[in-house]
Amino acid sequence: MKRLITSTVGGQPAAATGNRVASLNPSRLDDVVAEVALADADTFAAACRSARRAQKAWADVPAPVRGRVVANLGRLVEANFEALSALVTREVGKTLTEARGEVQEIVDTCDFFLGEGRRLYGQTVPSEMPDKQLFTFRVPVGVAAIVTAGNFPVAVPSWYLVPALLCGNAVVWKPAEYAAACAEAFAELIRRAGVPKGVFEVVYSDGPNTYAGLEAGLREGLIDKIGFTGSSEVGARIGELAGRHLQSACLELGGKNPMVITEDADLDLAVHGALFAGFGTAGQRCTSLGTLIVHDSVLDEFTRRLEDAVQSAVVGDPADPSVLYGPLMSERFAERYDGFLDWIEDHHRVSGSSGTGRITADNPRAGFVGDPAAGLFYHPVLVHGVRPEDKIFQQETFGPMVGVTRYSTLEEAIELADAPGYGLSAAIYTTDPRKAFEFRRGTRAGMVSINNSTSGAEAHLPFGGNGRSGNGSRQSGVWVLDQFTRWQSMNWDYSGRLQRAQMDTLTISPDLDYRLDPE
Questions:
Q1: Residue 471 contacts by C-beta under 8 Å, 6 or more apart in sequence?
Q2: What is residue 57's predicted lDDT score, i.e. its pLDDT?
Q3: What is the tens place of the pLDDT at every residue in 274-289?
Q4: For residues 222 and 46, what is the distance between their CA atoms, to the nearest angstrom?
Q5: Which residues of 481-516 are buried (b: 16+ CB within 10 A; e: fewer)?
Q6: Cα separation of 60 and 201, whole Å?
Q7: Do residues 353 and 311 touch, judged by C-beta distance below 8 A?
Q8: pLDDT of residue 43 exceeding 60
Q9: Residues 96, 89 contacting (CB under 8 angstroms)
């Protein structure tokens, strides 16, 4: 019998009163990874109240000591590295190589932020008055409600949870219910690292109850910051809800990420980048490649090489080291992806595999590893002849599908890259530095890659997008500190008299009419 995963309030398991769902292994649907008790909105609000009660005492813990808790978490993740990686592969279907990379990202994040506990710097600022000093301080926002997706079930949450806790906030985390076992394992490591009870709560819930819980928490003044990773559509609703309560949510949303292949590109290198960007994680990344924008002069040759690479890529059991990608994450995502396949139109040419849709005995994929009937495995799809008015061009297609279009001038390529209105990640393959810098300057994307994949974050660089991909907030590196702290200024006048800024300042009398003798 599978262990029942429940929410926590006050560091204790919450009553399992809601609906229960099973989290299944998407590569073997008969393998129930966990049973999850879904909480209602009242439980979410109760977790926020508990976090509110615990937050001030946690904020009073010196920041360097909080940094040691982050260090403890990093060492615990390292000690449990293979077990956590295997769980990620089992529950969400990532290849073991990618799962290990995801767990390493937690370690990297902890290694970066443990030092920030000693570098939550403010500034001493000179005053315009004598005998007066000005100071700035970073202070925690309070209670952060974090809602994350399951395609990166532990790495992306670490981008929020680690800096939020380091900065002295309490956290209520709502992970994806279809990745609940990964979330519960990561949460237990966080608790074991030394985070006090009540400071870190986990609530498993569905979308409507999560939204209602956020609304209740904001209405009661229990939530000071919302962090959300998910679709652009849901992110817009979260941002609107936060705005009604004079808050700015930290939104990391979807992407329709372009990759431009110039006439001078190293085509073999570009093929490797496109293959990983488009089909790694079965295309289920917010940074997955959406549309290839290829120069007219190399379109045919690049397409031929890419088609060969996609045709020969190994799909199947994610535990096999030869596999490029495994299953889609859950039946819900598979059903949604089936709808995206309906966007293929008569003017498109499809390649990349022996079929489209789900891989079955009747719709086989050459070289498949494992039993396709056991899981949610889908053919890779290249859609050629994509036009700017096509849905496939305009919308994120969360799955193993990449569109291909053409361009003549770099200006046209940049216009096509930005046309869908997203702005998360963009890449260009070129051997011409001028093109690289022109593309960087022209695109709206928050992250730009030169001769590299559209995917691949590092823990010390800002991560986030613009437009439909986010509201300009950033995760990772020192930049995320602005999401989980507020600047507080202080002036200290020790002159013994009232000194009024802009009124009682020393006056300087220059002679601005003076001119040098031209001789």
A1: 239, 248, 249, 251
A2: 98
A3: 999 999 999 999 999 9
A4: 10
A5: bebbbeeeeeeeeeeeeebeeeeeeeeeeeeeeeee
A6: 19
A7: yes
A8: yes
A9: yes
Distance between CA atoms of residues 117 and 38, nearest Å: 35
Residues 6+ apart with CB under 8 A from 143: 48, 51, 52, 55, 169, 170, 171, 172, 217, 222, 223, 224, 225
Determine the pLDDT at residue 457.
79
Tokens 């889908």 belong to which residue?
A: 378
Mean pLDDT, rounded, of the chain: 96
Active site amino acids: 252
- Give the residue carrying structure tokens 């870190």: 200
Q: Indicate the pairing of strand 4-5 with strand 28-37.
A: parallel
Amino acid symbol at 201: E
- Residue 1: is its pLDDT beyond 60? no
Cα 72 from Cα 67, distance rounded (Å): 9
- Ordered alpha helix ranges (H), 117-266: 155-166, 180-192, 207-219, 232-244
How far does Cα 288 stand from its chain's mean position?
Answer: 12
| SS3 (DSSP) at 428 | strand
Q: What b/e readout covers 372-381, taking b as 16+ CB neighbours within 10 angstroms?
A: bebbbbbbbb
Query: Cα–chain-centroid distance for residue 285?
Result: 9
Closest CA to 87 of 180, 162, 9: 180
Is residue 21 over pLDDT 80?
yes
Owner of token pair 């209740």: 216
Chain Cα centroid distance, residue 433: 29
- Report yes or no on whether pTM surpasses 0.85: yes
